[in-house]
Specification:
The chain has a domain of 123 residues. Helix content is 50%, strand content 16%. The strands form three sheets. A seven-stranded mixed β-sheet has the order 3-2-1-4-7-5-8, sandwiched between helices. This is Ceramide glucosyltransferase.
Amino acid sequence: MELTIAAGLASSALLLSNLASILLAFSRLKRRHVIAAPDGAQPVSIIVPSRGVEPFTQETLERAFSLDWPGYELIFCVAHAEDPVVRLIDAAIVRHPKVPARLLIGDDRVSANPKLNNCVKGWRAARHDWVILADSNVLMPKDYVQHLMAAWRPDTGLVCSTPIGSRPDGFWAEVECAFLNTLQARWQYAGEALGLGFAQGKSMLWNKPMLDANGGIQALAAEIAEDAAATKLVNSLGLRVNLVASPFEQPLGQRSFAEIWSRQARWARLRRVTFPLFFAPEILTGAATPLLLALIAAAGAGISLPTTALCVLAIAYLPECLLASAKGWYLSPRSVTAMIVRDVLLPVIWARAWFGGAVEWRGNAMTIRTKAMTELEELA
């Protein structure tokens, strides 16, 4: 009987925390709205590290050249001259002569992070005090800069946007949406509401003099993931990481199970190494753990297991669907199935993150390890 009661209470507590995170995220997020550029807007440098050609590369390039901000420059960074994306960037620069834009090629080996290495030359070349590091697959709205600037406060050290998956093509891309949107974005906004804001590398607005005074972009090499290093740096300065009120889209297209597994396993391993205390309770997110506990409680109390399962799934997924609908995020008849598959994968991905350090990022082999591990190897 004690086990039944304990399992029931634990399941209820987890479901309530899940609901609380959705309510917190709901309070922080706003549905997409247009923000006009302010008078006297300060110029901005936008650094876009690029590698390879993806299904939406042409569109994301066009969006970058069509921003409604009175003064901005684009600095595209590519590691290798033979990369096929070079041709598309060069053509876009020619098509938009009124937008100051440059393509820089080269690889500065300041870290084990290939993306950060690619950004270094762009940071050094940036002409303005406000700098945005923007992934090449971010679908920038016309008021992209406005949304980032609007989130800056006197106590801000960094403004970011989590990616919101859109335009999935196929079921596994819908699973990716379930990971990105109503799980990861939701918990990130809930964390910000609780004063635990953390960086997301997709879009990062920096005050260049502030970062340069604290080690420059090379300071982000302190961790294998630049957003983890950014979070720790900003927190050490007594400043906050803020999120935009309306996060930006990342169009997905087709995704395979292997791609999702690789990406989620890499991100989980990065979180495990850089923020282990925050990563440990991730096993409790999603519906798998509260469902298992509820079934244990139901079996002990003689309650119908199918009925219990349906109730738990409804309590878990209906609020997620309402959040997606209210904020204009992708939602389809298969979304709940995608959420269930996501939550089946979550415990496996969590367990995988505790073992092994080798992952792959766009063809680059990366060994993820803590700073302490590296220092011990250097002493050996």
